[in-house]
Structure formats: C-alpha cells, structure tokens
Batch of 2 targets.
Target 1
Amino acid sequence: MAGVDEPVVIGAFDEFLETRGHAEKEFFKMLDAELNKIDTFYTEQRQIQLDTMSKIKQQIAMQRQERNSLEAALTTEPVVLRFLHSAPVSPSTMIRKKVLRDAMLEFYRGLLLLRNYQRSRWSAMRP
C-alpha cells in the first residue's frame, strides 16, 4: 500500500519544489542529504549491533559446549574424583566468562543507545 502511494507523494513534492525559488530548492536538497546521512548512520550502527550479537551468540555456544564436554567427562569418573575435579575453575575459563559478560554489557549499552537514537530520529521526523 505504501509503495502505491509513494510515487504520488514524490510527485507532489517535486511539484512543490517547482513553485519555490532556487534558495529554497537548495535548502530542501540539503535537508534531504542530511536525512540520508542519518539513515545511513542508523543502518550502519544497526548492522554493527547485529554482527556483535552474532559473535556473542557464538561465544556463548562455545562456552556451553565446553562446559557440557567437561561435565560429560566428569560424570564418567567416580563420585570422589568428580567432586575434586569440579571444585576448582580454571583461570582461563573465569577470564573468558568475564570478557563475555563485559561484551554482553557493552552490547546492551549499544542497543540502548541505538534505541534512543531511533526514538529521537522518529520524533524529529514526525510532522
């Protein structure tokens, strides 16, 4: 439905521009260029967030797989050995968890900024 109405709106805007002077035409061209910059920035930032989300999902899947393989190895041992081996957590695992947690927090902050940017963009463009 919007695709059908769009050429009429563009045609009406072109007709509107034809009735304006050169300075007003340049002003509207400048506004259109600025709007394109805003849309491009938003699209780029959205794609960066989607890529980041994909990477974080991969890291979480790797952590789960590592944990599951460790748990599977520990369940084959006798109960006493299982208790002794499961108590300590390796420093590298703790570091990876911290890095992943920090990445998730940074991702969340980025999503909040992007959402706020989108809201301000929509409120600024609202007639």
Target 2
Amino acid sequence: MIIAMLVHLPDNQMPVGIGLGQLFRGVGQVGGVAISSAVFQSKLEAELQKRITGPDSQALITKIRQNARYVATLPPDIQALAQESYKVSLKSVFFFAAVMALVAYIVRLPIPDKHLDSRPRADKGQQPDKNSDSDSQDTQAQSETAKVVEPSNGRSSPTM
C-alpha cells in the first residue's frame, strides 16, 4: 500500500507521505500484537475458568497463564484441559488476524490503480518539466539506432 500512496503524491510531499506511512505501519504492528495478546489472554482465562475447577484452581490458572511451559509439568488430565484451552485461544487469535486482513483488503479497495510508467502529478505551484519530452525522444532515438555487432571473440555487444 505504501507504493500506491507514493505514486499518487507529488515530489515535494514524498517525505511527509513516507513518514506517515511508516508511522501507521508501526502503530499497526504494535497495536496488532497488543490486541492479539489481549484477545489470547482473555480467551485463555475464560477457557481455563470453564475447564479447571476445584480448590486452588485460581492459583493453577494463574500459573498456566503466566508460563506455558508449566503445562508440561501438570498431571495428564489437567494438562489436556490446559492444552485444549490454549488451542481454543490460539484459534481466536488467528480468527482475529484473518478478520483484520480482510478489513485491510477492503480498506485498500478504493485506492485507484495507477500505471507506474506515468509521471506523478505536479503540484499546482510547480511548472511541468519541459525537458522531459525531449529527453524521452532523445533516448528513444538512441535506442533505435543501437545495433548488435558480433565481434571476433564471439560475444555480442551494443554499438552506436
């Protein structure tokens, strides 16, 4: 998306566009990790509360939430309950990520396509580059006159 944004910006607005693009990318990354972690911990706590009951269950749930390696030290029946809770919580996080990817795709749809071979629009205060047409004509004329010659060493090389 950053390339789509930059193609539509005039040259004098590029630094601002790049800066804002990087800002929103960083905020999205940090926010995505934070929200995913919150979804995971919330769902994990709810699932563990549902599955593990009895005396000292709160202390056990807290230990399981704080250290995933603690699950391996649990008795097999409680270990299975904790693993199932982790499984359901991770599915919730992946569902959240899939929904966010879909939202990002939908938000991107209104961005118009633009061919990258065209020059960006100039600001109203800028004058269009008068030499750009003559430069492209000179380059085209040079490329049309270039021909390939086979030298005696067997390699081809362009000449003018």
